[in-house]
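Dear support,

Our group has been running a series of protein-ligand predictions, and this particular one with zinc ion is the one our PI (initials K.S.) wants archived with full inputs and outputs. We had some confusion internally about which version of the output was final, so please treat the block below as the authoritative record. The input we submitted was:
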Amino acid sequence: MSDQDFAQTIIAIGSNIEKERYLPEAIRLLRRHRSIEVRDVSRFFESSPVGGPADAPDFFNAAVLACTDLSPQGLRSELRHIEDVLGRVRTDDPNAPRTIDLDVAYYGDVVAEFEDWQLPDPEAATKPHIAIPIADVAPSFVDPVSGKTTYDLMLGVSAPPEAVKPVTSIRLATPYEARGPEDFDQTGDVYAPQLEALVRAQLLEIGEDPEREGLVRTPLRVAKAMDFLTNGYATSLDEVVNNAVFDAEGADEMVLVKDVEFYSMCEHHMLPFFGKAAVAYIPQGKIIGLSKVARVVDLFARRLQVQERLTNQVADAIVEILDPQGVGVVIEGQHLCMMMRGVQKQDSSTVTSAMRGTFKRDPRTRSEFIDLVRG
Ligand code: ZN
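Confirmed final output from the archive:
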């Protein structure tokens, strides 16, 4: 994302039901959203509920600095969707405990009034539990109403000492290291609480001790690895291509990109399969940057896959982007689920192909492609 096309936004987050779980989970869902690019996350702050019953549970609050190509209303409705995913039940009681609360506090320098909300969120300048996390993540962001920085606004909100204090027991794992005190308890890292809990349970099931030294941080590492290895779900073809399609009048020679390394996971065993892809097309007025072809392969490889579908999806994506005269894709992969379990010989590989347009209709085009791939 280039900054010119995207608005900078600050999202305020709060939770007081299972907050150790829901706050990090909300940040993870924001991070995976295709139209929201999380730039930084504040520390977590703990505060007593404002205006609620005396025995209401304390809140965790945080703020996220992000870029988005969504409109303010579009962003708000995506935040509502994430709240729904995380089990938020909306009631008429504004002080009711909630799993998660996501609000657009700022959206660039937009000052606007919508049907039931406004920008900036007026509470960003008046409520300590909102102003403090915002100032923590984006101290120099200028409030378009007052012309003051969020840091100055934070100094102006009156909060009794200790009313809003940083949470030191939870530290947000990379890539969004919480800032502030460096003496956080390393084992308190969280990234994807639900996923981590499942990995921990899995370790127990196979007879391991998740508390032994070598495994203490394994659920966190697995969660991060899974996020990376499946980030194809959170990426769109548009995003990958990002306008790198060029006019090429008269170009009608085969374009071939081969030896494109890929790493995927089979959907039957969730074990890796990997290898090389060859992608060829005959243009019809449009071409694409060569590096983008590799990114299209990654887009579909970084999901749970079967090799045949991966091959077809890459071919169909090239058709969608370029509308060429034809496309050919050949993928050669080695599947750990077969190799490790001794079902097949170690050195065997699986070859799949997908042909579209002239590659399908014209045997000469197809054999030219196959010869180039082999050569
Ligand atoms: Zn498998």
